[in-house]
Every structure is written in structure tokens, then in C-alpha cells.
Amino acid sequence: MEDQQIVDLYFARSESAIDETDKKYGRYCHSIAYRILEDHEDAKEIVNDTYLKTWNTIPPNRPDPLKPYVGMICRHLSLDRYEEYHTQKRGGQVPLVLEELAECIPDGDSGADIGESVALRDALGRFVRSLPAKTQIIFLQRYWYSCSVAEIAEGYGMRENSVTVLLHRTRKKLKAHLKKEGFDL
Length: 185
Fold this sequence. Notes:
It is built from nine helices and no strands. It is mostly helical. It folds into two domains: 3-85, Rna Polymerase Sigma Factor, Chain: A (Orthogonal Bundle); 93-180, Winged helix-like DNA-binding domain superfamily/Winged helix DNA-binding domain (Arc Repressor Mutant, subunit A, Orthogonal Bundle). Helix 1 crosses helix 2. The longest helix has 22 residues, at 16-37.
């Protein structure tokens, strides 16, 4: 079923919208949640919570395409759960990823309003789209999917050091891009 047909089911308040979303994007959402939480049961719960939040936000939203919309919801819910579980202890890839990005992304707790958040999202999107294809994929694997440097290196037949250097240079470019876009870092 096409995304717009699924969205239409949400607007019609048909429960089959959730079934169709699960058929099309269930494995994708589970993958996102599992990479962050590293627990299949928690990932299953997050996927179910993703469907609930999708149900509650469509309407009024009419996402096109649907995949990044449910992926974003799943990722945010997973990160919230991760933070809840790990407020005292640190481990896994998520703290490393967040620490790496902290040097070039404005602090989310600085009282920014929703307009500033949307502007930041749009600036990040423009930056990612401006990257060469391979760099774009590596950047997203690290900072969206929280893949380890070792996993990325293995997937591309690269040395871990090469991936680390590529990511460092890309973060420097991101910082310069965001400064140019007018964000305070």
C-alpha cells in the first residue's frame, strides 16, 4: 500500500492504518529502536508506542512520505526511553554519538522555540543533502541510526580511523554550515 493511502486510513480513523504501517515499516522501526535500546522487548514496546503516537498526530499532520515521519517518532521515543534507563549509567553508542554532535549542534535546552527547532532541522537537512553520497550515508548511519564506527568501517571496507577522520571533518563542516546559517554554537 502506498504511503498516501495509509495516511488516508489514519484520516478516516481506520484501525487498519496501524496494520498497514506495521506491514510496511514495522521492521524499519524495530531496527531503529533496537539500535538505540539494544533490547528486543523494549524495541517492540517502542514500535507500539510509535504507532500510538502516529495515530494521535495524524490528523492533523499529513506526512509525505510516511517512512521518515514514523522513523522520527520511533527514534525520539527510543532516545527518551534510553535516557530514562541511563540517567545514572553510561554505555553503548548513544552517549558517544550525542557527545560527538554536542560540539556542533546548538543546545536543545537553551529555550529555543519551535520555529528555531524547525529552522535547525531544515538547516541540518540542507547540510546532509549537500554531502557526497557515501559521506551522507556514513553520517546518517552514525548520527541517526547510532551505528558504531567499527560497524560502519566493516560495511564500507574502511579502516576505523578513516571513518573517524571522515566523521570529524564532516562535523567541522556541519559546525561551519550552522554558523553560516546563523545558529549560535
